[in-house]
Design brief:
This protein is mainly alpha-helical. Helices cover 64% and strands 10% of the residues. Strands 1-3-2 form a three-stranded antiparallel β-sheet. A hairpin with a 2-residue loop joins strand 2 and strand 3.
Length: 162
């Protein structure tokens, strides 16, 4: 084995170990978050939609833009938005510049519920993450994860699809 092959193999092992650690940590935290009694009759996915809308433009987000910011298939998101609209938490409207587009926005009740749930969620994040790492470690973790996410735009895909 050449030195270059050894370096790649070592780097692959390190990258895999880092990914496994990141993934398993995320799973452990998500299980704890899901078990918390803070969701006010929302699923975490529904809260994610409300939160994403709360951080977007005040007049709402196109369904396709909302879909890019959450972890759901387009069809699942559309059904979830329908359920949230039936509950009076979001409203759907036709995009002003394209009648084929759907804009989703928070209602006053949706905004209230997102804020109430969000404050409780921040407290649990502070407890589970903030009590595990000191302020410098939190800043370094955020920096590294932001760097990893940003790098994905410049790293070519393998093209393989399952």
């Amino acid at each position: 084995m050449t030195s270059a092959e050894t370096t790649v193999t070592t780097n692959a092992r390190r990258a895999t170990a880092a990914w496994e650690s990141l993934f398993r940590t995320q799973v452990a935290l998500m299980r704890r978050f899901r078990a918390d009694d803070i969701w006010h009759d929302l699923t975490m996915g529904e809260y994610d939609v409300l939160y994403t809308l709360s951080t977007g433009p005040g007049d709402g987000m196109r369904l396709r833009d909302l879909n890019e910011n959450i972890l759901l298939a387009q069809s699942s998101l559309s059904r979830m938005v329908d359920r949230l609209a039936e509950r009076g938490l979001v409203r759907r409207s036709v995009a002003a510049d394209d009648a084929r587009g759907t804009v989703v926005s928070l209602t006053d009740e949706g905004r209230r519920l997102q804020r109430t749930t969000g404050r409780a969620h921040v407290r649990t994040i502070e407890r589970y993450v903030g009590e595990a790492l000191d302020p410098d470690e939190l800043a370094e973790l955020a920096r590294l994860l932001d760097k990893l996410r940003a790098a994905q735009a410049r790293i070519p895909s393998t093209g393989a699809r399952p």
